[in-house]
Amino acid sequence: MAEWSGLHSSTSRHTMDKSITLPPDEIFRNLENAKRFAIDIGGSLTKLAYYSTVQHKVAKVRSFDHATKEATSDELYEISVQEEVTARLHFIKFENAYIETCLDFVRDHLVNTDTKVIKATGGGAHKFKELIERKLGLRVDKEDEMTCLIKGCNFVLRNIPHEAFVYAKHADSEFRFQTTQPDIFPYLLVNIGSGVSIVKVESEDKFERIGGSSIGGGTFWGLGALLTKTKRFDELLQLASKGQHTSVDMLVKDIYGGSYGSLGLTGDLIASSFGKSATADKGFPKEDMAKSLLHMISNDIGQLACLYAKLHNLSRVYFGGFFIRGHPVTMHTITYSINFFTKGEVQALFLRHEGYLGAIGAFLKGAEEDNPNQYSWGENYAGSSGLMSVSPDMNPMQRARSGTFDMLEMDRLERKLVNLPLLQDASSYIPDTVDLAEDALAREYWLYCFEEALDGVVKRALASQPDMPEAAERAEKFRQKYRHKLQTLRHQPFAYGSLTVRSLLDTREHCLNEFNFPDPYSKIKQRENDMALKYYQKVVKSLEELSWEERQFALIRGVLAGNVFDWGAKAVSDVLESEPEFGFEQAKRKLEERPWLVDSYDQWFERLKGPPHKCALFFVDNSGLDIILGVMPFVRELLSRGTEVVLASNSAPALNDVTNGELQILTESIAAMDPVIQAGLREDRLTLVQSGSSSPCLDLSRLDKVLAMVVRERKTDLVIIEGMGRAIHTNYYAMLSCESLKMAVIKNSWLADRLGGKLFSVVFKYEVPAAGHDSEALTPP
Amino acid sequence: MAEWSGLHSSTSRHTMDKSITLPPDEIFRNLENAKRFAIDIGGSLTKLAYYSTVQHKVAKVRSFDHATKEATSDELYEISVQEEVTARLHFIKFENAYIETCLDFVRDHLVNTDTKVIKATGGGAHKFKELIERKLGLRVDKEDEMTCLIKGCNFVLRNIPHEAFVYAKHADSEFRFQTTQPDIFPYLLVNIGSGVSIVKVESEDKFERIGGSSIGGGTFWGLGALLTKTKRFDELLQLASKGQHTSVDMLVKDIYGGSYGSLGLTGDLIASSFGKSATADKEFRCYMAKSLLHMISNDIGQLACLYAKLHNLSRVYFGGFFIRGHPVTMHTITYSINFFTKGEVQALFLRHEGYLGAIGAFLKGAEEDNPNQYSWGENYAGSSGLMSVSPDMNPMQRARSGTFDMLEMDRLERKLVNLPLLQDASSYIPDTVDLAEDALAREYWLYCFEEALDGVVKRALASQPDMPEAAERAEKFRQKYRHKLQTLRHQPL
């Protein structure tokens, strides 16, 4: 049932100052170009959605036309910063009390819109219809509430990784995020507003309300108000969290003196809610009654949800509605109830953006002609508020903020993202090796580490735009924003789903982009690429002089040595900053000698004696020495063996990782020096594809569609993943359905310590699926 | 969950006269030969069961031995009246307040018993254990409550035709009795005591508590008491039957202005129980009681339906003190079941639901006598019958039900089964007209039987010309039968 109910009377009782000033660059961003509005007005909160275009800078690389511009420089390519327009969805949530101020603000800042209609949903939509039409001059077009809710739910489940979570009050981390499932259907949505609606969702367009109950949030609120004289919903929850239900409820042991063994009922089970209150002579504390009521309602809903789930054979049950929304008390009792009734067979799942579902759905209804479901979308960490801490006492300041404005921004990705077809089990694949939300020590280290590195990143960003006078200001804004995010994450590790090294890196990239630093490392990459190219032929020549056996080993050592050059690792960037002459040979000397920390080189070597692979997919890492002197000679060898090679590099910049654009140019100039590479390109045995990612890490479940297609067409039977970000922070445990090689040098002493190694330890993990024999010489503890 | 709860404190508040005199020939019949006792002590009512033998006259016919007794008469056979001893089960229900008086009475009238044990069940059994042992000199042997309940339920379903009924408040007849099914299993029993137990019964000995809920009779009572300051369960039900829930509950139309067509929700559907209370200024006791009753009945109804569907059961019986003889709760539960299953599942109630525990406890104790081997028949002469449940209809009758209520079952000498040639045994109804549903026919036949009574009395008297006390017995018969006819006129069920 609807979340509306009579909520406004309680908020209006709080006479709020409606003349707040809105910080425009933070709250209603990109309004100028906004089009397509949707609004979801609930009982107490309004959610406004709009679609806008964002203009921001992107770094592009372009080969110099050597014919015409011969003398200018010895650089291989030129870097230009271009303006690009991308689509972004904005969602803002605020209390109904601010609706007039917000509508005024929107009207004043709308510049280029030809929109005539605003889609509206939620029980409060008709109440504010006239106001919206008058303020915005748009026609209010009502959309069905349940349809919007389901559409929104499908959208977030499909597009936001770690959208759904399990709540575990007493676990190390309150939230356990679920990996995105390739197929989100079917599922059960239990929406607990005033009443309860239980909806079975079978596909994008097919859903059915299979059940419901009148015992819902409104019952908790209404009965609670009658019993305790407390009229505020939040206060009732507070009361409930402090109460003792055993003085009000009759337990099994109150009847039988203990458990009722033959029926399997424990003594502490509630036999009758409020069962003691009929005969009590004295009154009960408010807290106890509120607690008893909460248990009664949560248990009831939990049982109904379980029964419907079983009856319809559904294992995924999501809970939403104002009764749940961000309230740890209700999430806990619902979770407890579901566990009790299904004995763990069904998990209670909650959604990070549950409050936005209606607005998202209404927006999507209005935007159907733009086919939003054709695209992939990604949450923009820079513009989104993240999940609030839900422990009521933990962070009151943050909660206060959540009481005013909360935001979600989604960027439309240029290309559709899909699973790597070679994943052994896409539904159980988890990219990240360590969930920092669950590992307090690791979290502390990495948050510290990223904060330490921040000054360096700011410096680098500034240096990348030497002739832009306002860059200093933007760099400072970036610093503040990212530092604030880190602080938020310190207190709310779950703000953006699972906290991982990857999400920390991605958040930094989003923030840099937000302040128009699209590629701070572009100049460094350019310099290193140019330098490395000069050594290419020499490296290839020396490799060719080795025996076959020696060469195989030297090639692997070359890839590993190249991988030392990583500006993302502080240990290395310090060396690179202080020793400009630090080169390939120096890097080789830094490497750990065999046996490596993880060492299955012998198995790999044996494998090389066998028939060549059909096709190798290589996820590459850094620019410069890494790609040119490490990876390319190895690729050359594979091609010589008769193996086709697909090189996958980032679609957009991240640190000093080589981008697809750069790699195109580099490969061409290598081809000009090396007939093997040239033949490979010409015969289409060497292919360059973009990964779809702009992260230093790698999520094999969100890869560019073209990559997936090529992989399938070429019958790829070997996947090579290189670098700490892609092979250790992520994918270390990824199981593939073909042979795989994970290679990385550990350039972080803390991580090395964790894995039982030391700085510059080597991970060389060659795995063969299902064959059964142990391919791993050493497993990190 | 158990029906016990803390009910006694409310009954004990009614200081009842415990020194009532019991009319022995009506209440504890055939105590002299009683053996095998069982007792089920609930929150407010005690149910006592015993097995006894009854000596009564039977008419026999015998052929004359024509060879030896040739000249005496030209009659084909002779008629003789003989004494026969048959087995009978007695069940008596009375308020817990009378328990001491009753135990005293039983002790004083027990003559020929070698029983050493009394089977006991119910949440109150342990409370009165010491009293029973002292008064009766029998050892109290506790039996599992749920097992007794199920055993009792199986027994009445198998042995009492028209035990189960459907309740329809606004129909011509409030009760629609079900024909006895040749196979009573499987079924679902929803016992609504303080809490709710949902039990799947698959065979005589196999049952499982597949679900339950803490929102039951105790919740209605407890929350009701907190909200209305009314501490009596019956009064709460009275309040509820008068109230208007729409000023407390939020309906679909309160949210959407009408029905929510695309989801198939009508405007009058309750969207949120007590949904208006958070913002309402006025509170009315009866409105809240009504809303609470709806909330609880609907919830139990929905749970029962879901469990029935999940386990593929079509027969769902409701019992427990929340239901027991209360038309208000039978009505709301029935409504809820109809709503949730769209008529696929019917809410069934039991005429002797209050006796199930006592019957079961008795059967546990009598297992060596193999009671399930026999067929039993309700003795209409000794049983009180189902009370009219319309609260205002017959207050006098209700008052009596508050004191003593009886069920007697005669053991039939031979086991009765279906005629194997019935086309469909489960739908077979022996009677052509159900007088309960046909008021005109009922009136006629009741009148007819009353008219005929004098003739029957005359005939009875004439059959025993040489028995001097026959006149007195014939008069007693006349009174009893006329009373039954009068009762049936008011309570056709």
Low-confidence stretches of chain B: 1-20, 387-402
* Quaternary state of the chains: heterodimer
Cα shape of chain A: globular
What is the typical, i.e. mean, pLDDT of chain B? 80
Please tell me how large the radius of gyration of chain A is: 29 Å
Number of helices of chain B: 13
Write the H/E string of chain B, N to C: HEEEHEHEHEEEEEHHEHEHEHEHEHEHH
**Strand content bin of chain B:** 15-25%
Number of helices of chain A: 25
Number of strands of chain B: 16
Q: What portion of residues of chain A belong to β-strands?
A: 15-25%
What's the N-to-C terminus distance of chain B? 30 Å
- In the sheet with the most strands of chain A, the strands line up as 5-4-1-2-3-16-15
Structural class of chain A: alpha/beta
Radius of gyration from the alpha-carbon trace of chain B, in angstroms: 25 Å
Write the layout of secondary structure elements.
The complex is a heterodimer of chains A (781) and B (493).
Chain A lengths: L7 H6 L21 E7 L3 E19 L13 E19 L3 H11 L7 E5 L3 H12 L2 E4 L2 H15 L4 E4 L7 E3 L9 E6 L3 E6 L5 E7 L3 H12 L4 H10 L7 E2 H5 L13 E3 L13 H26 L4 E5 L7 H15 L4 E5 L5 H10 L10 E3 L16 H9 E8 L4 E2 L21 H24 L7 H21 L9 H14 L7 H23 L3 H15 L7 H9 L5 H7 L7 E2 L1 H8 L6 E5 L5 H17 L2 E6 L10 H14 L1 H8 L3 E5 L12 E2 H9 L4 E5 L1 H6 L9 E7 L3 H6 L7 E6 L14
Parallel strand pairs in A: 1-4, 4-5, 8-13, 13-14, 18-25, 19-20, 19-23, 20-21, 23-24
Antiparallel strand pairs in A: 1-2, 2-3, 3-16, 6-7, 6-14, 8-9, 9-10, 11-12, 15-16, 17-22, 24-25
Helix pairs in contact in A: 2-3, 4-10, 5-8, 6-8, 8-9, 12-13, 12-14, 13-14, 15-20, 15-21, 16-18, 16-20, 21-22
Chain B lengths: L7 H6 L21 E7 L3 E19 L13 E19 L3 H11 L7 E5 L3 H12 L2 E4 L2 H15 L4 E4 L7 E3 L9 E6 L3 E6 L5 E7 L3 H12 L4 H10 L7 E2 H5 L13 E3 L12 H26 L4 E5 L7 H15 L4 E5 L5 H10 L9 E4 L16 H7 L2 E9 L26 H25 L6 H21 L3
Parallel strand pairs in B: 1-4, 4-5, 8-13, 13-14
Antiparallel strand pairs in B: 1-2, 2-3, 3-16, 6-7, 6-14, 8-9, 9-10, 11-12, 15-16
Helix pairs in contact in B: 2-3, 4-10, 5-8, 6-8, 8-9, 12-13
